[in-house]
Amino acid sequence: MPLLPTATAAFACYMIKGQNEPWIFNNFRFQIFIMMFKSGCIALLLTTSLMSIEKADAQSLYMPADIKKAYANGTRSADGNPGKNYWQNKATYNIQLAVNPPERTIRGVEEIVYTNNSPDTLRELVLKLFLNIHKPGAPRESKAYENDLTAGVQLDDLKINGVSYELSNDKTFTNYFIEPGAPILPGKSVKLNIGWHFDIASSMGREGMADKSSYFLAYFYPRIAVYDDYNGWDDHDFTDGHEFYSDFNDYTVTINAPRNFVVWGTGTLQRPETLLQPEFTARYKKSFTSDTVIHIATADEMKARRVTSQEAVNSWTFKASDIPDMAFAISDHYAWDAWSVEVDEKSKRRTSVQSAYKPESADFHKMALDAGLSIRWFSKEWPGIAFPYEKMTVFNGDDGMEFPMMANDGSFDEQNFARNVAAHEIAHMYMPFYMGINETRFGFMDEGWATALELLSGYDYMTKTYAEEMFTENRVFKWIKDRSGDMDIPIITPGTSLTGKALKVNQYGKPALAYLALKDLMGDAAFKTSLHAYMDRWHGKHPTPWDFFHTFNNTYNKPLDWFWNNWFFSPNYMDIGIGSVSKNPHANMVRVRNIGGMAVPFDVNVTYMDGTKETIHCTPSVWERDTRNAIVLINYNKRAQSVTIGHPVFLDANTADNSYEAPKQPKK
After folding, report:
1. What does pTM read for this prediction?
2. Cβ(360)–Cβ(389) under 8 Å?
3. Predicted pLDDT at 18
């Protein structure tokens, strides 16, 4: 008598928390199952024992001493919530910038009021001067080309609470340490007045010159580094590989630019009617409620010099509150498109979507439309939270880099790829900006999410096959086809300790697959509930990976530490194989080996001798109790002719053992 007399694909699964899971066992549990069946205990097993079989023993997660300190101090909680003693510091920036293309020198003055909300007395301040990455001799993770090099940021004057501070620009790279005249006590503020100038890089990377009269301005202002509850001052030098970490600040930024130059930027543009001619002001204002793309200014209209106010200098002022950064773009010949999309059905709130581009960039003629459709999809589907900002502008530069409400993207021949790049940068508006993530140390908390979201959104505007091919080519192959030790470094490794290909794999493809595997394991509804809980608890703050892990554990009500350990703390990789396909008096089964050890989902595709086929999907939960071996039961009443295992996204390092062919039966 077979174990499952009618074991079709439907009977090959059982229900746990509404999630279909295949009949799958490690060797020990399979033998227990057989003994219980023979002793008449099958009904008991089906009704009670399966739940206990699948219940994982709680496994504690590694936690470094600095994170432990935060929990001990009550700034973070083991249930995933901010602790009762949580705090973070904040600044108010008022910045004036003079930009006069094609002159490369840009001059600025700013006032910073920085408030110490921590329980600590601050005896020093750390200024971030990111553009010193362009100074000759600056530590870098990539080659510096001659047109990348400048004298960096030159601090012209600095006053602290009105008292002049002696400056030195000679030996400073991207951190500038200041000892204020008096310590900054808890709850107190300090005011800095800074004058500075720099030459914009003549090449285009994250920032720089797109051409002689089109600039992208990012990291252009001296800012106070983050001082947080687990790391203290963020004094890791920017080396052009790792990304950034910022507090949530209030900004007023004015870009003083010559007539005929349009400025796009983060925040709300103040008094646009004083900057644009009436016809263009009307188009601009209409775009905020328009359901179709409006050409605010065409390339021909920009060339005719009739778009902006004809004052010698126009002052473009932008304001934003509780935001981690500001970035701007300027040009006298870029075309300008805009429209808006509804991002919140309840409030009817809309987001302005804009693009600024060279007329010869064919893909950018659809960029405003594509960006808006991505924003609408993110708001309604994944992550399924209303887009957090009032607007989004995609600037036609020569990179793929995100800033609050801004993206600097290159142009591409293939429209789907161009939209894919834009979607990735737009996804960053949630992570890291809405969530305040420390990208420098925990880049997988934002790049991994943006990479997963680019695939999920790609399903909406590409075929499933094409979206997965694009994803695996760009995000998976580099990890799984390179079996060097760099590829096996655990995701949780601080980014500050990594460089090169290990850093990229651990920030992009590998964590993206981890989030996708978690979604597959939990099911969409439970996954979205936990994701929303995490984002609700931590937006506008500074979550660590442990806050994420604990929130999911807390809201899923089922231990997930085994999954976190498997994907984030281990050197595992993706490689499964068929151990055997066999039929005995009790079961017809496929034994699957997990050579790489990673808890991946996979499909078992069976073709039977009678020509019928079935596919059994196995979620990562099949590896919960035994990460190395599993048994999947298939139809007992048929004999398998061939079996293949695999997944179109979770690719195998070695596919040679992913298929089985039944031996040919001797002729009678």
Report:
1. 0.92
2. no
3. 31
